[in-house]
Amino acid sequence: MKTETQTLSQRDRKHLWHPLTQHKLAGDMLAIVRAKGALLYDESGKEYVDGISSWYTAVYGHCNEFITSKVAAQMQQLDQVVFSGFTHEPAIALSEALIQILPSNQEKLFFSDNGSTATEVGIKMALQYHHNLGNDRKVLLAFEEGFHGDTFGAMSVSGLSVYNGAFEDHFLKVLRLPIPAGENNADVLLKLRNLIAEHQIAGFIFEPMVQGAAGMKMYNAEGLNDLLKLCRENHIITIADEVMTGFGKTGKNFASEFLEVQPDIICMSKALTAGLLPMAVTSCSRKIYDAFYSEELSKGLFHGHTYTANPLACTAALAGIELLTSAEMQGHIERNIASHQIFAGQLKRHPKVKNMRQLGVILAFELDVEMERYGNLRNRLFAHFMKEGVFLRPLGNTIYISAPYITSDDQLQKIYTSIEKALEKF
Ligand SMILES: *Cc1c(COP(=O)(O)O)cnc(C)c1O
User: Fold this and answer.
1) Which numbered atom of ligand 1 lies nearest the CA of 211?
2) Architecture of the structural domain at 66-325
3) Reaction catalysed by this chain (predicted)?
């Protein structure tokens, strides 16, 4: 093997198949060799500010020593054990810590491996809840442009996408609602009333407050609250997909805290393990758990992944929560929020900036330029930011920031400057 003369990007091409990539159209993958705090370093030594926390995971900074040292110590103690019939301290301690910060109605935690399985479990909980109670409810409800993951249940409840065309015949039955944006709240509520009258709806899954993959679409808390209230009155199980919004990004630990009606089920992943290891949790209220608690074996939730509640991932998650709830990290979150507010205030009157919005450390706007004029605008924007040493990943013409909380003022400024340059260039 002639590996020494080849770059990592070159070696990558031979055997690797990357996610969300049409390899015939895509160029080489950028090889990242090191990360620290808010920075990523590629194989040529160039550094990038990680403006999206590596898909909203590394919110306390990459290779955070507080977290890595705890996980390293756990590695010497217990690496992995079956979680069916067995338990361990990291999972127990994590459950105690997580329940402390979750909305007060949440009581039980079910582990899986990623955001898609977290929502998959949430969907199964809602469907089997009604099945166990003998209710004939087999339809799910979701927002039109939501994103809940790439497994079959998760794809089914996600908004229809050209990428999922091959699978649509195999989807679960899902009804869709537009998001309540304020002015249409009454219409959406009426639409839900009509759907309830016509269908046997088991559960409603939604991304509270912000739809991430749809382009950081922020919507109306009051409108959502009214929908959740109507669901509750009609015995529809509500599932908050907090995979993206969880753990401080909205300025609160969970976006559900903006709502009066607490969801029956909450899905968590991404920042749960602070960017260190893959893991997910689906939490639920007593009401859900009790519908499975029975002398009949078949009423249990027979879902289980091999690495359920992996002790290392639990340790990372526990350390992450310790950081999140510290005064220091809350200070960083507030600093980020204030910094974004100033930048947004300066930028929102710019003629090319449309729909500037912010919730917590998430800042987003649309670049109002003729898309055709710039060919593939999204790819050109991405290339611009990377050249500037800033990792932002625009969604269409939506530019958004969701940087690690520990991103320094100088690093935030570097992100802002790269955006200002983009406004000049495009
Ligand atoms: C990323 C995401 C998922 C899927 O999580 P994966 O870990 O990528 O499977 C589900 N829901 C939301 C809201 C997400 O942002």
Assistant:
1) 13
2) 3-Layer(aba) Sandwich (3.40)
3) (8S)-8-amino-7-oxononanoate + S-adenosyl-L-methionine = S-adenosyl-4-methylsulfanyl-2-oxobutanoate + (7R,8S)-7,8-diammoniononanoate
